[in-house]
Amino acid sequence: MEVTTAASGRGSRQPNLPVDHDEADRALRSWRFWLVVGLAGVGAGLGAGALMAILHAVQHLAYGYRRGNFQRGVDRAAAWRRLVVLAGAGVVLGAAWVLLRKLGGPVRGLDEAVWEHKGQMRPLDTAANALLQIVAVGAGATLGREGAPKELGAGVASGLCDWAGLTPTQRQILVACGAGAGMAAVYNVPLGGALFAAEVLLGTMALPVVVPALATAAVATGTSWLLLPDRPTYDVGQLETTGSLVGWALLFGLLAGVLGAALVVLVGWAKERATKGTRAFGTITATFAAIGAVAIALPEVLGNGKDVTQLALSGALGLPLVAAVVLVRPLATAACLRSGAVGGLFTPTMTIGALAGTLAGRAWDVLIPGNPVAAFTLIGAAALLSGAMQSPIASIVLVVELTHSGLSLLVPIVLAAAAATAASRVLVPASLYTAADWWGSGHDRSSRRRARGGIAEQARRLRRPPDDAGL
To answer: Which runs of E-coded beta strand occur in 74-121?
Structure first.
C-alpha cells in the first residue's frame, strides 16, 4: 500500500515529519515509549469520563432536566431559557477564553502542535481549554464534544513524553495517538479513534504510527468503561443493502463531496478570521446570544447534534425541520469559530451529513420506495464525513463503530465515501482540519501539490526497510 497524506488534506502544510525508519524502529523498541502509550491511554480514558460527567452536569443545570437526553431537555425548557443560558455562557466563556489566552498565550491547537511543533503542548493550558470547550457544548454551543477529550488526551501525552524524556519525533506520534485515544474513549470507538490519529492527524498509515495508535485507543476505550457505558453511540436497527440504495449512495456521494468542500471553505474562513485578543469577549458573547435567540424557534440548533442525528435515524423529524436544521447548523458552527470560541467539528459534520442524507433519501424514496430512512441517514453521515475530513477509511470505520449496524450497509457506505472524498478533493485540496491554513495561504493549489509530493516521498522513506534488512 502506498502511503500518502493526500487523502487527509495534509498537502496544505509542510510538516516536521518525516519519521525516518531508524527513529520509528527505535520508538517501537523503546520501553519508555510503550510506557507512555499505556499511561496516555489511561489518562485519555479517565479524562474523557470526567469531561462527560462535566458535560452532563452543565446540561442538566442549564436546562433544568434530570432524565432523558439533551435535546429532550432543551425542547421542554422554556424558550426564554435557551436565550438566557447561551447569553450567560457567552459572557462567562468569553471572559475565560480571553483570560486564558492573555495569561498563557494562544492555546496551541492539535494540528499546529503535531505538524509544526513536534507535538509540544502546554498541558495545563490545554486542560483548561478542554474544560471551557466542554462547558460551551453543554450550554448549547453548536460545536462538537469530541474536541475537548481529544485535546486533553493530547495534552496528557505531551506531558508524559516530556516526563519520560522521549524524542521530539516520538512525542509527535504520541500526541496524535493521545488525541485519537480521547476520541476513542468518548465515543467508544477504539479502531476509529486509532485511524483518526493516523489518517487524519498524522496523514499516514505507516506501521510505526498505526501500532501505537491502536494500542493507545484500545487502552483509553477500556479505561473509559469504568466511567462511561459500553454501548453504541447511536441506536440503529437492522438494515439491508438494496440495488436502489447502492445507486443512490453513489449519486449522493458526489453531492456530499460538493457539500463537504463548501463546509471546508466555510470552516476555513471562520477559523482563519477568528476574533483574537480582548475583542473575542464581545464576539463570543454576541454570537452565543444570537444562537440562543435562534434556538427559541429552532432548539435543534443547540449542542453538538448527537441527539438530532438519533432522531433522524429514527425517522422522527419532519422534512421542513430537517431542511431548516441543515441550513442553520453549519452557519451556527462557523459563527462560533469566527467569534473566537473553540470546539470539535466531527459530530456537527456528521449531523449535517445525516440530515442531508435524510432529505435526499426521502426524495429518492418517492421515485424508488422501499428503503428505510435510517439507511439514507447513515450513508449520508459517512459520505459527508469522508468528503469534509478527506479521510474515507477513518470515516467509514467511525460510522460503523458508532452504530454497530453499518456493516450491513458497507457497500453503499464505501461507494458514497469514495465518491464524496474524490469530489471534495477536486474542489478543495484541504480538509476540515487544514482548512484555516489553506484559506490563509490564498488557496494556492500548486504549493499544495509540491508539499504533497514531498510528504509522499517522506512516507515512502518511512516504509523502506533498512539497508541491512534480510529477506
So the answer is: none
Residue 307 domain-assigned? yes
76 with 180, same domain: the answer is: yes
Nearest to 12 by CA among 470, 445, 328, 377: 445
In whole angstroms, give the CA distance from residue 153 to residue 46: 9
Strand partners, 402: none
How far apart CA 215 and CA 218 sit, in angstroms, is 5
Q: What is the spatial distance between Cα 291 and Cα 460, in angstroms, rounded to a whole number?
A: 47
Q: Are residues 438 and 290 in the same domain?
A: yes
Instruction: Answer yes or no: are the C-beta atoms of 94 and 172 closer than 8 Å.
Output: no
What are the per-10-residue average pLDDT scores of the chain (471 residues)? Answer: 44 43 69 94 97 97 92 94 97 96 77 73 90 96 94 94 90 93 96 92 85 96 95 87 94 97 95 93 97 96 95 92 96 96 94 97 91 94 96 93 86 96 94 83 49 41 42 33
Are 200 and 258 in a shared domain?
no
Task: Identify whether the C-beta of residue 277 lies closer than 8 Å to the C-beta of residue 442.
Answer: no
In this predicted model, what pLDDT tens digit does every residue of 163-217 receive, in sequence order? 999 988 889 899 999 999 999 999 999 999 999 998 888 888 888 889 999 999 9
435 phi/psi in degrees, rounded to 5: -65, -40
Contacts of 263 (CB under 8 A, 6+ apart): 330, 349, 352, 384, 388, 432
d(C-alpha 51, C-alpha 68), whole Å: 19
Q: Are residues 248 and 220 in the same domain?
A: no
Sign of CA dihedral 373, 407, 429, 133: positive
- Kindly tell me the burial class for residue 190, based on how many C-beta atoms sit within 10 Å of its own C-beta (0-12, 13-18, 19 or more): buried
Cell digits of residue 254: 458526489
List 344's β-bridge partners, or say none: 144
Q: DSSP character for 344?
A: B
pLDDT at position 153: 96
CA distances from 22 to 6, 55, 174, 418, 469 (A): 24, 43, 17, 34, 12
> Tell me, what's the pLDDT at 8?
52
For the chain, percent helix, then strand, then coil, each to nearest 5? 75, 0, 25
Q: What is the pTM of this model?
A: 0.88
Give me the domain span that covers residue 251: 243-448
> Would you say 208 and 173 are in contact if contact means Cβ atoms under 8 Å apart?
yes
